[in-house]
Amino acid sequence: MSDRRVVITGIGALTPVGKTAPDFWNGLISGKSGAQPIEHFDTEDFPTKFAAQIEDYDELDYFDRKEARRLDKVCQYALIAAEEAMQDTGLDLEEIDKDRVSVIVGTGIGGMITFYEQSISFHEHGPRGVSPFFIPMLIPDMVAGQISIKYGFKGPNFCAVSACATGSHNIGLAYDSIKSGQCDMAVSGGSEAPVSRIGVAGFTSMRAMSNRNDDPQTASRPFDKNRDGFVLGEGSAILFLEEYEHAKARDARIYGEIVGYGFSADAHHITAPDPEGEGVILAINRALEAADIEPTDVDHINMHGTSTPLGDIAETNSIKKVFGDHAYQINHNSTKSMTGHALGAAGAMESLATVLSTYHDMIPPTINYDTPDPECDLNYTTNEAVSRNVTYALNNAFGFGGHNTTIVFKKFEE
Amino acid sequence: MSQDVESKVKSIIVDKLGVDEEEVTHDANFTNDLGADSLDTVELIMEFEKEFDISIPDEDAENIATVGNAVEYLQDKV
C-alpha cells in the first residue's frame, strides 16, 4: 500500500484481570483468572452462573451521574480505556492536528443492556415508554462516536462489527487508515458489555458456555481435554496507533509495530468452525504475505482459543497446516483462559497482550491446563509465563458468521 | 397536593439532568440553565407523563421550557 509504518504509542485496558493496561499485563503474566460468580442479577434459573467480570466496577468512579446514565456500559468501558491510552501517548491534544486522528473502535453487539431494559419498558408502558436515549445508547458505532466527541478527533470514524473478530477488524482498519495516508494517528480497539440476563441466557441457550459453576476460575481451559465451553467476559482494550515518522519526531514511547494482517471468511456455518479450517488458513497466510515474512519467522501466536471443544481443535489444525514442523517451535497461548471471552473486545485485549509480548519478550500462559488432548498438541505455554525473544507475533480472532482475522505484530526496531 | 407536584418534578429533574437541587429554581430553563439537550428535554416530558400518569401532547410540551412551566402545567393537569 505504502511504505508508511504504523506503530503503537498508547495503550489502555479495562478488563476482568486488571483495570489498567499495566494491571492487565501483570494479571496475565501472573496467571490470574478474572472469572467470578455473577452477583448483579439472580442466576438461579441460569445453567451458567459466572462470568469474567471487571472487579468492583462502579460507573460513578469514572463518570458523573448524567454522563453515566446516557452511556451504555459498552461505551463507558471504551471511554475509560481510551482515556488511559490517550494519557499514555503523552500527546498534548492542543498541539496535534485532530483532523488527522481516526477513531475506529467496535463492539460485537452494542448496547445490549440498554436494549434489554428498554424492551421491558416498552412492554410495560408502550411506545411512549421508550427513552429518547434508547437508539443512541444501543447502536454499536456510538463507541467510536463518543470517543471522537470527547477528544475532537475528526479523522475517519466508524466501527466494523464482526462478532468476536470485531476488535481485530477495527485495529486492522485503523492501521489501514494510517497506512493509506488518510490520517496520522488512530484510536483503535473494541469494547463489550454482555454480562446481562439476556446476554447470558442467549449464550447458554446455544450451549456455548462452560457450566463449571463449582469452580469458575478453572472453567476457561483452552486446549485442555476437559474444556466444556467458553467463559463470558467483558471490558475494553484500546491501542493508539501512530505513523512512525510522526511518533519518532516527538520521541514517543513505542510498544511495537503492526506489519500486516489477513482477513477471510469460513463461508461454512453461522456459528460452527469449519473443521478443515480453510478460512483460518487463508487469514494466516494473507497476514504472513502482507507482513512479507516466512512462517518460520513467527515466535508467538495469541490464539483465538475460546475453550470450546470444536473451536480449539480446528484452530490447532489450521496452524499446523500453515506452519508445519515450525508450529511446534512457536509459543502459542490463549489469554482467554484468564480474561474470559469478551466478544467484540477480545481481539483488542489479545492484540494488546500480543504487542506487549513483543515489548517485554514474555508470553503469558494458558492457565487451567491439566489434561492433554491428543487433538490439541501444540506448545500452548501452559500454566506459567515464558520468557523468550519475540520478534514476530500473531493474534488470531474469529467471529460468529465465519469471520477470521490474523494481525502481525513486530517488536519495534528503528 | 401542589407541594407534592413541585417536589416530584424537582426530583425528576435532579435525577435526569444530574444537577444539584439548588440549581432547580422556579425560573431555571432546562436548556440554558440546566444543560439539557433536545433528547434530555424529551426524556423529562416522558418522565413527567410516567410519574403523573398523563399524556402531554407535543404542542404542550413545546411550551414547557422552565421548571416553573412544568410545575404549573402539571399542577393544572393532575
TrEMBL record, chain A:
Its EC number is 2.3.1.179. InterPro entries: 3-oxoacyl-ACP_synth-2, Beta-ketoacyl_synthase, Ketoacyl_synth_AS, Ketoacyl_synth_C, Ketoacyl_synth_N, PKS_Beta-ketoAc_synthase_dom, Thiolase-like. The keyword Chloroplast does not apply. Keywords: Acyltransferase, Fatty acid biosynthesis, Fatty acid metabolism, Lipid biosynthesis, Lipid metabolism, Transferase. GO terms for molecular function: 3-oxoacyl-[acyl-carrier-protein] synthase activity. Pfam families: ketoacyl-synt, Ketoacyl-synt_C. It comes from the Bacteria. The keyword rRNA processing does not apply. Pathway: Lipid metabolism; fatty acid biosynthesis. Residues 3-411 form the Ketosynthase family 3 (KS3) domain. It catalyses: (9Z)-hexadecenoyl-[ACP] + malonyl-[ACP] + H(+) = 3-oxo-(11Z)-octadecenoyl-[ACP] + holo-[ACP] + CO2; a fatty acyl-[ACP] + malonyl-[ACP] + H(+) = a 3-oxoacyl-[ACP] + holo-[ACP] + CO2. CDD domains: KAS_I_II. Belongs to the thiolase-like superfamily. Beta-ketoacyl-ACP synthases family. PANTHER family: 3-OXOACYL-[ACYL-CARRIER-PROTEIN] SYNTHASE, MITOCHONDRIAL, POLYKETIDE SYNTHASE-RELATED. This is 3-oxoacyl-[acyl-carrier-protein] synthase 2. It comes from Fodinibius salsisoli. The gene is fabF.
UniProtKB/TrEMBL annotation, chain B:
Keywords: Cytoplasm, Fatty acid biosynthesis, Fatty acid metabolism, Lipid biosynthesis, Lipid metabolism, Phosphopantetheine, Phosphoprotein. It is found in: Cytoplasm. The keyword Phosphoprotein applies. 4'-phosphopantetheine is transferred from CoA to a specific serine of apo-ACP by acpS. 4'-phosphopantetheine is transferred from CoA to a specific serine of apo-ACP by AcpS. This modification is essential for activity because fatty acids are bound in thioester linkage to the sulfhydryl of the prosthetic group. Signal peptide: none annotated. It comes from the Bacteria. Coiled coil: none annotated. Pathway: Lipid metabolism; fatty acid biosynthesis. The keyword Phosphoprotein applies. It holds the Pfam family PP-binding. The modification O-(pantetheine 4'-phosphoryl)serine is found at residue 38. Residues 3-78 form the Carrier domain. InterPro entries: ACP, ACP-like_sf, PP-bd_ACP, Ppantetheine_attach_site. Carrier of the growing fatty acid chain in fatty acid biosynthesis. Belongs to the acyl carrier protein (ACP) family. This is Acyl carrier protein. It comes from Fodinibius salsisoli. The gene is acpP.
